[in-house]
UniProtKB/TrEMBL annotation:
Domain of life: Bacteria
UniProt-recorded name of the protein: GNAT family acetyltransferase
Keywords on record: Transferase
Pfam families per UniProt: Acetyltransf_1 (PF00583)
MF terms in GO: acyltransferase activity, transferring groups other than amino-acyl groups
Classification via SUPFAM superfamilies: Acyl-CoA N-acyltransferases (Nat)
Residue ranges of domain N-acetyltransferase in the record: 131-178
Amino acid sequence: MNDELLAQDGPTTELKASYLTAEDCNIAASVLYQAYHDDELFQQILSFDSKSPATYEKKLRLLIREELASFWQSHQHIIGVFSGNNLIAVSCVQKANDSLAADRVWHWRLKLMLNTGMISTKQLIEKEKAIHQAVTQFPNCCFISLFAVDPHVQHQGIGRFLLRAIDDLVNTDNADHSAIFITQDKHCALFESEGYRSEQALTFTKVTGQLFVKSKVENG
């Protein structure tokens, strides 16, 4: 855990948000894996087969590990919420005015083609490019690539706490917007309640999601 706090839930509580360190990344990968295991889009792209779930699970672990490594190596934001010393929520946030498609996509191509297959890699890159194209409509925008709360502690306000930490990050970056692509309707209400608005529908491999955007005016 980095000593630099992004948010703290009052002086008498243990909940706090901060930038993650390299030592936190293994736990962060576990939190992300649990949260995204049943995500329909990842299941489509990574060819989930209920008769052989281990293959999908291996690919998902690899994808999350490579995403974290890519964010870390390119000095993007990886933040987490801690309850005491326990990491319970994670988000990867792309800096404003920093291309989604440049070096990290080429980094993905090599490793993911070797480990998840050419078709899966092609679909992931197409997804990245389509989202990047949609996000460019909103200048100076931070993009939330991954957002996860440990399933064991969901529905306790932790996701909202993490979103408000992202608001602080957006202000620190002097960004004008923040955005996220959501494929599961059950998550939309949280983002809408925090000022995000659905701006565009995007479809990948038969899975449709919404690009939600929040302006800095709404960030307060």
